[in-house]
Every structure is written in C-alpha cells, then in structure tokens.
TrEMBL record:
Domain of life per record: Bacteria
Family annotation (SMART domains): TPR
Name of the featured protein: Uncharacterized protein
Protein's UniProt keywords contain rRNA-binding: no
Length: 256
C-alpha cells in the first residue's frame, strides 16, 4: 500500500481538563496514522475521540485503517468506500491523489472481507478519478484474479509490464499468477523470474514461483521457495498458504 499524501494539518476540539474546565486539544492526522500498524487499538481510540470532537474525513480515514488492521474488514471497507465516493467538491480532501489512495485501501479492505465485486467497484471509481494510477491498476488485477477473470488480468498487466524497468515488480507477480492459472507456464516462469530479479526476498513472488515450480514438476524447487517464505515472513498470509502447500506436497510428493 502506498504512503498517504498530506491533507490537513490538524483538527481542534475541547476536552475536560483536570480542573473540570474545557481545555483545547489538537488532533493531528500524522499522529493517528503513525499508530495504525504499531498500535491499532490506540489509533482507533484516537480517531473515535477526534470524531467526537468535530473530526470529520481525516478522523474517519484513520479510524477505517485502524479497523482494517484490527480485522474488522467489512466496516473498514464501507467507511473507506464512502469517503472515496462522497468527497467534497473542492479543497485538499477532494484531490484525485488522496481519493486514489483511499480507493486502493477500500479495495484491499473489500478483498479482505471476501467481497471482490466491492473491490472492483471502488477500483473502477478510483480509476475514473485517476485513470493511469498504477496502484489502482494493480488493485484491479487482484480483484479480477479473485473473481477468476484471468484473461482480463493478462490483458491489463501485459500492457503495464511493457513499461520494462518502470513497471512495478508486483505487476509481474500478478501477471505470472494469471498466466499460471491459464496454463501458460512458460510465460508465468518468465514473469515470476523477472519479479524475483527485482525483489528476491518478496514472499508473494516466492510463493508464486513455488506454485509454478510444483506445476512443472520441480517439487524440490517448490519446497525451497515455500520454506523461504516461512523463513522470511512466518506470520504472513503468504506463509499460511506456503504451509498448506508444503503439507500437500509432503502428503503426496509425486503429485503434479
């Protein structure tokens, strides 16, 4: 996920001081965002307090990301989706770049909630605002893959990877995954190799190469890749999938 472009600097409100009087307090978006990954409960509470004291879109944005980090994907997706679609007509919070960021985040939340159509819908909304946004194009590919629309992924990402060195490495991973699902294993092998040349320790790329290797009959290579995923990122979603693949391989090492 990309970094967040700056919007407003701060919001103000009042809280009760020790003497019972109302004391002014300032809420800062950067402070809230900085807590999302390390202390999502703290970020959620900070954002909720901010919203109680007049915080609007910035507070809601941080609140949604905290919910996503806490595993409440559906509420996060609905909040982010609403922020994208109901942006003000002018001002910094109406900027195309900010709405594109939120659209990508909403798509991630919809996918995490098991709703690829919701992800695709908000991505299309984001692309109508910022048509050439690379991150949104990648989010669209992830949503299409979840829906099984591999042909559309190949079409979209073949054009994207044609940029060569300017193409994001993740595009090669997603393209390889789509090609592998279509049975185009030679192309998939080529594209996953290009991805790993640029990011050799990327768990998603290693997981995908392991799947491709297993399908072409290289069980040893697949096992090496999946074990590498576990070593690099043991608590990740990719590691969970690698464990499943290793278990299947151990149970039936001669399976294609």
């Amino acid at each position: 996920m990309r970094s967040h472009p700056p919007v407003g600097q701060a919001g103000t409100g009042t809280t009760s001081g020790h003497d019972g009087k109302e004391a002014p307090q300032t809420w800062v978006l950067a402070d809230c965002m900085s807590m999302v990954e390390e202390d999502p409960f703290g970020a959620r509470d900070y954002a909720q307090d901010w919203m109680k004291h007049g915080g609007d879109r910035e507070a809601r944005h941080c609140h949604a990301l905290a919910l996503l980090e806490l595993g409440d994907e559906l509420d996060a997706a609905q909040e982010l989706d609403d922020l994208v679609r109901k942006a003000p007509p002018s001002g910094p919070e109406s900027s195309a770049s900010l709405r594109a960021v939120m659209a990508e985040e909403a798509a991630e939340a919809w996918l995490s909630a098991g709703n690829p159509p919701g992800a695709l819908s908000i991505v299309e909304c984001g692309l109508s605002i910022r048509p050439e946004d690379t991150n949104l194009r990648l989010a669209k590919a992830r949503a299409l893959l979840e829906q099984g629309n591999t042909g559309a992924v190949v079409t979209d990402l073949t054009a994207l990877v044609a940029r060569g060195a300017d193409a994001p490495p993740e595009a090669f991973v997603l393209l390889a995954s789509a090609e592998r699902r279509l049975g185009q294993l030679d192309k998939a092998t080529q594209h996953i190799s290009l991805a790993l040349q640029r990011m050799p320790d990327n768990a998603a790329a290693l997981l995908e190469r392991g799947i491709i290797r297993e399908q072409v009959g290289d069980a040893t290579g697949a096992q090496v890749d999946w074990q590498h995923v576990l070593d690099l990122s043991p608590d990740s979603h990719e590691a969970d999938l690698a464990r499943q693949d290793l278990a299947v391989l151990a149970a039936d090492p001669d399976s294609p």
